[in-house]
Amino acid sequence: MKKNKLVKFFIFSGVALLFIAVAPLSAQTPSTDGAELAELTPPADEKTILDMVRAGGLAMIPLGMLSVAAVGFIAFNFYAIRRSSFINDSVIEELDEAVSKMDIDKARDICVTNPSPVTNTFNCGLSQIRGDKLFPVAIEKAFENASSKELTGAFVVVNYLSIIAALAPMVGLLGTVSGMVKAFNSIAAEGMGKPEILADNISEALITTASGMAIAIPAMFFFFFFRNRYSKIVAEVNLVLGRLYSDLLSTAEL
Fold first, then answer.
1. How far is CA 132 from the centre of its chain?
2. 231 pLDDT tier (thresholds 50, 70, 90)
């Protein structure tokens, strides 16, 4: 289910980036004062981002894939890394009431019908209760194992942004090296008589570097943003689970 949503975010990101790529970079209207000058000057070709991508050469293909992935992961994490995705306050209140009455069957039903990292983890702890007997060590171990499984999955998706932020400048640098090699080869073969060929190669080198940095900077920013948000939510999840566990033990001792 989560993978399907992630694929949808990737498709949406690809369509959005394609729409931006085909839009003109600028649509300047000559001012009244410059109208006379504009009539005398031949109109310059309007370039789109897609034209810039073509000028960047083969290195722009992996950079384009990284940009789609970055936008997709950012959009998905805005959806997934939310407090409401981990903690449902109304469900926690129902669990509190069931635990205070030592109604374990009802607590299990609440966990099963309202799946979330908190309820899934708490249900694993409840599974260690046999009849009226509680085994605190077994319950704590079940909490540890279940919370590791439930909570680390969300951070894996956040961590992909860090990988993209590290890879994009490296791919851009590869394109830069390729462009400079072509520039020097053109000088060796043609001399300095055809500056347009040299300009195309240098343009390829600069575009790939700029594209790599343009992908890496927002990817790194949002990695730290979602990591901090995730850490805050995990701390609150642990507090909720600790309180439910303490209530369970104190109620069982009465």
1. 45
2. very high
Distance CA 29, CA 43 (A): 12
Query: Who contacts 69 (Cβ-Cβ below 8 Å, separation ≥6)?
Result: 10, 13, 160, 164
Query: What is the pTM assigned to this prediction?
Result: 0.74
Percent of the chain with pLDDT over 90: 30
User: CB under 8 Å to 161, separation ≥6 — which residues?
Assistant: 70, 73, 74, 77, 219, 220, 222, 223, 226
CA 245 to chain centroid, in Å, comes to: 33
Distance CA 122, CA 92 (A): 11
**Residue found under tokens 């992996």:** 62
Give the pLDDT confidence score for residue 67 in this predicted structure.
Answer: 92
